[in-house]
Design brief:
The complex is a heterodimer of chains A (241) and B (135). Chain A is mainly α and 241 residues long. Chain A contains 12 helices and no strands. Chain A folds into 2 domains: 73 residues, no CATH class; 160 residues, no CATH class. The longest helix of chain A has 32 residues. Chain B is mainly α and 135 residues long. The C terminus of chain B is likely disordered. Classes of the chains: A mainly alpha (241), B mainly alpha (135).
């Protein structure tokens, strides 16, 4: 028995643990998501985060120890942001043709998401640095962290807010779009996908791809656009105000 | 093997982006500059073919990449227990507002079939008319 404890102590301290646990838990969560018939409450990111956080808390493994392994997955967010150029490039004809309305929608949606988060956070009396960490929440996590750092927020908190925003978007979008009566035709799917990519970045885009291929493509486009707009405009807005 | 080439290209573009961002004090993060450069580089087949494979793979597993940061919630449990409900309220309301405004704006600006030319779908088909400026 003590051998087992020794073994666990050894294994849980190596990077192998965090990496293996993240992959295995995520694959299991994805299988559960499929089994549930893609129910939005069974979102694989939500399931994985909850399972891993509970496991770490229960076993007493610290987050930095876990992250020593999980960072290999986290690192791929950088190349993934670069890879967003691919869906943008694929849709370059549409981008050229509709750039006006896409830009208006991206600015309006991203602006409203940020401004309403700041206003609500201020109204509800959240601490200053928490409010600042809310500003880049609709941008994909690695970029959100960079922006938060620039404007005086807490990068780690910004990443968590971004991840939660993605989840909320992925969970709630279906009901919101039904409520707003956006139809399931080509224009409707484009609008829905673009909205998910704008307001709920990668996690929203993943759920858009699940729903409809066109929606997924527009989500990828919106995600890339939002990354550029937010990293240009947010620090500028905070310098001005 | 091609997937590996693709990853190498993505990393090269990211590194160049990082160098430019730091060297020229650009207001954009390195990976974002890398993304913009990649869009220019994709016109060449040596870049396009391997990147297509790797980008497809990375982007189809995009949600996995958020798990490590997401687990970081556990390090902010004190903030969460103190402000959790309020933070959740802010996140839910602002996300729904952003989603709704984006979707309604884009849907409202769509090409209407009744207007001047017969507009085809926003999907794969290409409308015959050049994109008119927005109303």
């Amino acid at each position: 028995m003590p051998d087992f404890v020794q073994l666990w102590i050894y294994l849980s301290a190596t990077p192998l643990f965090g990496l293996t646990a993240t992959l295995v838990v995520y694959l299991a969560a994805q299988a559960a998501y499929k089994r549930s018939g893609y129910a939005s409450w069974a979102n694989p990111v939500l399931l994985s985060v909850l399972t891993l956080a509970c496991t770490l808390l229960a076993t007493g493994v610290s987050y930095p120890t876990y992250f020593a392994g999980a960072q290999f997955i986290h690192f791929l967010l950088g190349p993934a942001v670069v890879a967003l150029g691919w869906p943008l490039w694929l849709r370059r004809a549409e981008l050229r043709q509709r750039w006006g309305r896409l830009l208006v929608a991206a600015l309006a949606g991203g602006g409203v998401a940020s401004a309403s988060a700041l206003a609500l956070g201020w109204l509800l009396g959240l601490p200053h640095e928490v409010i600042l960490s809310l500003a880049p929440k609709s941008v994909t996590a690695p970029v959100a962290m960079g922006i938060a750092e620039q404007i005086g927020g807490i990068p780690a908190l910004a990443a968590v807010f971004a991840a939660m925003t993605g989840l909320i978007g992925a969970l709630g979008a279906k009901y919101l779009f039904a409520l707003l009566r956006i139809p399931d035709d080509a224009d409707g799917w484009a609008a829905k996908g673009f909205a998910l990519g704008t307001a709920a970045h990668g996690i929203g885009a993943a759920s858009a791809m699940q729903a409809n291929a066109d929606a997924g493509a527009y989500a990828g486009l919106a995600l890339g656009l939002q990354v550029v707009l937010a990293s240009l405009l947010l620090p500028l807005a905070f310098r001005v105000f | 093997m091609n997937g590996l080439h693709g990853l190498a290209w993505l990393l090269v573009f990211q590194s160049v982006g990082e160098l430019l961002a730091r060297g020229l004090h650009l207001p954009l993060p390195g990976p974002v500059i890398g993304m913009i450069l990649l869009m220019g580089g994709l016109r060449w087949r040596v870049v396009r073919e391997p990147v297509a494979i790797c980008a497809g793979f990375l982007l189809s597993h995009l949600s996995l990449l958020f798990v490590p940061v997401g687990v970081g919630v556990m390090t902010h449990l004190s903030l969460v227990s103190q402000y959790g409900l309020r933070m959740l309220a802010v996140l839910v309301l602002s996300t729904l507002a952003g989603l709704g405004v984006t979707a309604l704006t884009l849907y409202g600006l769509r090409e209407r079939p009744g207007a001047a030319t017969s507009a085809t779908s926003a999907g794969s088909g290409q409308p015959p008319k050049d994109g008119a400026p927005d109303a």
